[in-house]
């Protein structure tokens, strides 16, 4: 076999030129973690800053052990520590996000050679089954700066039943685990708080690390953003930028791009700020302004017409994945349909689709019926789908982007009927394509920001574990000034919410605030973006050179930064 | 407004940090084009290498003026030239491809300050309308190393009627154009040959530049690849690599990814070699081995089962866009349906879909009818769609990826019926998602390879124009040894093909050859890739650092290179 063939075979299993390159790429590290040419753990102490939520009284009753110790106070660093003999397990929970591997590397580096780090296979499920393997230095080196959660896998199991709690206690006892570090989103960090309280009597501690590409786990200056958001949005923004460049090259298409993000529109807003397309839907605005679906469609059609009249026959619309659920009248329609279908399950099962549709319509009131009838027929059909085990429609299956296209198309046809005969718009041929960007963005090679952020988060989490703290989430703040390592008491984030008929603890999802600097800036520019091509191509993520160190635009705006450059310490070889 | 807000506004219209960075990025330039700190045109002369095709006799009769001059001989460089006063127009033809802007920059640099370069607005349509604008040095600087064709736009107009030929003659005469440089694919370069012959009596010359992301415009060592292929495949490969990383992280999905590329599977093969997924369909193999659709589906289902039995519940299948058209039995079915529908247009118009389906089936023979009935019902419906103006079905509208998913799903259900009850496969839940990557890859920021390749192609094209040559395509060969500038006589590539009942000149599309080193290497590895996770994440395109200078893997294999690194001369600031 030739030399090249040999090289190509050697690249298999994560050894592309790129993967080999990033493994040894120096990463910015906060100065307190750097000791000569190696990394070290640091100590933490309470600050005077106390976190509180509206449900603090009830939460205090439910988490007595945690709160007695933490007083809900933020922790700040306090010198270095030198702990030995601890056995710590780390697990990924929920959907993957870029940088997770570097969290593991950071923990491993904090633990050093005198403590043991275990990987938990396939997430919470693996914890319940006690499936661990020891992480060696060589393994840490092999995953450094790579994307994905594939080093140990993840899953979405929620640990909430008494039986599961017992299982966890047995597993940590059997394996002599001192700390569980849970890398996850709002639900997983809530779970971390619950487990911390539960395991306190056993002397076992629990630490959380804030992960989610959705960006809905954030808390002002304390937690500027969750990890994975930067990489995901930069991947989506590159793709959207490429397509925008294509619209102005081909001169004949409108592209409708749905962007992943279950509820909040942070990902869509960031992508919009990075690329400046003609139109961007922000779900939170629809909700707050109580807009109807028809109003949104009208507004998009208005922009299409405005551009066509100027001879611009192309454009791009960004649609957040959760859009449909945020339209007040759609919420009413969906609730009404859920109820009708719930109360008539036996009848409905036997019906063919036409009969089913008529039956449902005959039970809707005039307003919801009108809305239902406005929808394209394939969407009408989809809304008749079986509900899931919670009685909900699987909304992610609704192709929102084609729904919007079909409705805009119909609206444009109507507008053309009354358009001035010699306007460009009158003879305009609306040509639309659809995309969904989601899975592409969860496991890409981390941006230098996520790589550095996660490595430092791992160093914080590992240090907290060694220091014997429990019920805290690792955090890095002050992203432009060298970074500050902190720890947030999870109980200080909890509220109580009624879900499926019972009280549940929740960390509230951070939605896009209409009075936030990022949204206000977007509003100040969107008219210009719709009327002319103002788009930008943010390009592929660079790991070296002058554009490697960038924070998300929404973070920079909301945190009042002067520019987009981050500073998380000196570039350091991770050895 | 704050400093950051100001900066963000200033980024609009192609001034992202990335775009500002790439504009001044040094690019490798062949040594003969470098003169101190600036660039220069070179002369060309005939080599002894003559190109010939099977239809050379007929072509010689049709292109007497061109062939008399060129003798179908390859041109090689010959010193430097110093020409003044020429007026040259450049146009983009067909779908965009990354690097096009650098072709323009290269031409501009070859022309220097004593000749004039005009941009043609919106492709061949703009040429017919005489819509030109002069390209200044500042414009060239503003588009250097950026993606897309949006600097002047493109379209798909074919210049082939007598009326259009007259229009072109009038336009070049009126605007005193000395040369038209056509940047396009196989059709556009064929058109360039025709125009070269046509305009020869006017003393107007025509030069082609080989563009197409499809990679089907290539000719051994003479033309290793068309530009745009490298960037498109590296974009698709990054996305596919990200998703592969996701499959191994989430541990529950199969992803079916359709990849753009009208006919040939070069793009899919390259993406596969970059990422090593579990399964890759190569259309040319299906055709050559006369495989049925059922055989392909069976083979994918076999791999799904094999992995499920080992506890691997995830994987990824790559599907070339043109796949359906390459299945021999589907060709037969489609031709039969076209004929039935063509002969019964009046009857069919009035039929509803059920009647139409029954009518068609009653007219198919047993074999084609059986194949039709095997197809998922939504695909059956789609095949009943109206034919286009050429009587063809709009095949790109068929969602091949969901067709494959549905058929694999059905096949797996069948296999599970007879699977051993205690095998992992028996209880396996096949969970599939679909993607189509196309438009994302046509206009991305060029890789350093496409940036350099195109700049040098532009320097060749500009030099040929100044040198008074006509009917040549610019080429750069020897990509690993500093690069060699050449010119290929277009008439030496032409064949005659019967299309829609009449003879047409064509440059034959290069398909994937089953005896090529690239395909043979793929075949030697695919069993391993299907049985275990061997995937690789090639990562985002880097423009600096140790992994910036890479050629496509298929090119390196087929050209027998020792490694993946290119050498196209010294990095040079383009000023």
List the helices and strands and how they pair.
The structure is a homodimer of 575-residue chains.
Chain A: H1 3-11, H2 17-23, E1 27-29, E2 34-35, E3 38-39, E4 42-50, H3 56-62, H4 64-70, E5 73-80, E6 87-93, H5 100-111, E7 116-120, H6 124-129, E8 132-134, H7 137-143, E9 154-155, H8 162-174, E10 179-184, H9 186-199, E11 205-210, H10 229-250, E12 254-259, H11 266-275, E13 279-280, H12 283-288, H13 293-309, E14 315-320, H14 323-326, H15 328-343, H16 345-349, H17 353-363, H18 366-374, H19 377-383, H20 400-417, E15 432-437, H21 448-466, E16 472-477, E17 484-489, E18 494-499, E19 502-507, H22 517-531, H23 553-558, E20 570-572
Parallel strand pairs in A: 6-7, 6-9, 6-10, 10-11, 11-16, 12-14, 12-15, 13-14
Antiparallel strand pairs in A: 1-20, 2-3, 4-5, 5-17, 7-8, 16-17, 18-19
Helix pairs in contact in A: 5-7, 5-21, 10-11, 13-20, 15-18
What would you note in describing this structure?
2 copies of one chain form a homodimer. With 575 residues, the first copy, chain A, is an alpha/beta fold. The first copy, chain A, has 2 domains: 28-228 and 446-509, Rossmann fold; 232-440, Phosphofructokinase domain (Rossmann fold). Helices cover 43% and strands 17% of the residues of chain A. The first copy, chain A, has 23 helices and 20 strands. In chain A, strands 4, 5, 6, 7, 8, 9, 10, 11, 16 and 17 form a 10-stranded mixed β-sheet that branches. Chain A is globular and about 80 Å long. The model of chain A has no long low-confidence stretch (mean pLDDT 95). At the A-B interface, α1, α2, β9, α10 and α22 of A face α1, α2, β9, α10 and α22 of B.
